[in-house]
From TrEMBL:
Record localization: Secreted
Family: Belongs to the resistin/FIZZ family.
UniProt keyword Disulfide bond, yes or no: yes
One example of a Gene Ontology biological process annotation: epithelial cell proliferation
UniProt KW Disulfide bond keyword: yes
Gene name for this UniProt entry: RETNLB
PANTHER family: RESISTIN, RESISTIN-LIKE BETA
N-terminal signal peptide: 1-25
Stretches that traverse the bilayer: none
GO molecular function, one term: hormone activity
Protein name as it appears in the record: Resistin like beta
Any Pfam family the entry gives: Resistin
InterPro entries reported in the protein's UniProt record: RELM (IPR009714), Resistin-like_sf (IPR036262)
Length: 111
């Protein structure tokens, strides 16, 4: 075996070490570009039609307070310091304490 054959045998393993490294770098750059492209498409862009949240409070005597048609409950408050309430049907606040003098529903809709 001549000296050129020995150089070739040494060069082949070196080439194998270099090729995966350079391939990985190009793969990393391609993946970085793809990720940046996807993130750019996901960024918030407001719609041309802007909507406004419109809210009002409805106070009733007793344990129930209902929102007007087209509005939804976003929160409730109960008299006598009662903190136990639930929303029924998306439009009515129900205070769960046994004795209740008033209930307030916070009602909102998108205008």
């Amino acid at each position: 075996m001549g000296p050129s054959s020995c150089h070739l045998l040494i060069l082949i393993p070196l080439l194998q070490l270099i090729i995966p490294g350079s391939t990985q770098c190009s793969l990393d750059s391609v993946m970085d570009k793809k990720i940046k492209d996807i993130l750019n498409r996901l960024e918030y862009s407001p719609s041309p039609v802007s909507k406004k949240l419109s809210c009002t409070s409805v106070k009733s005597q007793g344990r129930l307070a209902s929102c007007p048609a087209g509005m939804s409950v976003t929160g409730c408050a109960c008299g006598y310091g009662c903190g136990s309430w639930d929303v029924q049907g998306g439009t009515t606040c129900h205070c769960q304490c046994s004795v209740m003098d008033w209930t307030t529903a916070r009602c909102c809709y998108l205008a």
